[in-house]
Amino acid sequence: MSRSIVLPTIIAALLVFSMGSTAFGAQLDARINPNQDSSPFKMNYQKTFFIEYPNGGQLFDELHAKEWTINGKADSSNSGVQTLMQKLNENIKSDGSQARISDLNVTYDIHLKGRNINTSIDYKIILEGTLTDYVITKDQTRTLIDLGWRGISTNEKIVIDGVDINHPINLIEEQEPLLYSIVSGTEAEEVFNKNMINADFILEQPLTNWHFLFDPTGINVDAGTFGLSEQISGFVVSSWTMGESSLREGRQVERVHEAETVADQRYVFRSVQSSDQGNLYAIGFGALDILDGVEIAGVTPRPPEGYATTSTGEFPIYIVYGMAAMAAIGGGAFFMFSNRALKNQQEGQQGIDPSRLVGYQTSSSAGGYQTNRGEAQLRDESDYQQTRSHYDAPQQSNSPPSSTSVEEAACGCAASAEMGSECDCEMQGSCLCDGTCRCNADVCKEHVSSLR
Description:
It contains 13 helices and 18 strands. By secondary structure, the chain is α+β, with helices and mostly antiparallel strands. Among the domains are: 24-44 and 54-62 and 71-106 and 125-326, no CATH class; 407-451, no CATH class. Strands 1, 2, 3, 4, 5, 10, 11, 12, 13 and 14 form a ten-stranded mixed beta sheet that branches. Strands 6-7-16-15 form a four-stranded antiparallel beta sheet, with no helix packed on it. β1 and β2 (38-52) form a beta hairpin.
């Protein structure tokens, strides 16, 4: 494959991968101290929009090489932030909660990036503030705190420094008039018109479905996250988290809204937002309840006597017992299957009948030493060639074949001559042979003649 084909393929794959990452949805992080009148919270809203032009067209010409960013920060002294704080408190009150936001800081970042296949618009809004009036009642043993304020949302127009941060369609109308003219009055307009500041799902997910954990030791390291020093030393810290796919919360999937519009070309518009997430912490051991339709928590400095679970309800103990039961069932099924398999097997001797085998010696004596090595073979030798031992294979010799007779091969002097050396008998002056030797050496002839 040529380089001109490989390089564009790699670049296209990287672009598809980069645009495939989804933006986070609403994310809540709050740390409630029932011993104080106020506590910090943070909300993060993110969403990504895609304008796709597969066939080119006017939007391709307008957007594919364009890039811009609009961002800013504002505190409660800003009139737009004051309006947002008022609308959020109105929505919290309509949800039945008595808590309210007393201070708020807003950070927003909007980034448009054009490409040859699509254009993306990334929206990010961060709200950081202070929550008050969440304590319902308090006595010497327990404090009731309001948790019904979690749906920090508003559908109103929120303008900060001349930018409507809540409805992307209004920003598009100002910054990209061609894009606005194509989507205006079509289904695609609804994709851009949904409010960004929306945490309704966090409120709609009951706290009994959230994952519950608590730290019974009150680790001092956590004190800084509550703005405290050693005040929570020895106290319980409870936490509720949501956003994972589980039996409690169900399957969490990203939220995608899509619409098509045909103008000079066919265009596709999508908004992508992942499932919402929540992290809610409270000093003390929190037991959930409902008061006048609003979810609350009764917080005590210590967990109840004997309470050892670390998850929602008694979820872990059910898991432990469930796994033990499954293991017992699996083990019983395995033994039943094994027992049935053993019963189905044939009983008695399997394979070759021992009466058809006969012993066969395979070793030879060597210097007066005899081994007991042997093997068994079929008595009728019907298939012996397939089962014969390697001892029966002919031995290979590296020496050249002898031209002497059998008798000469038995003669020591003749055998020495066969190996290409001088006759040992002549060199040693003695004969190594018996009377049957026909060696031509004089010492052997004399020795043989004396034996006759």
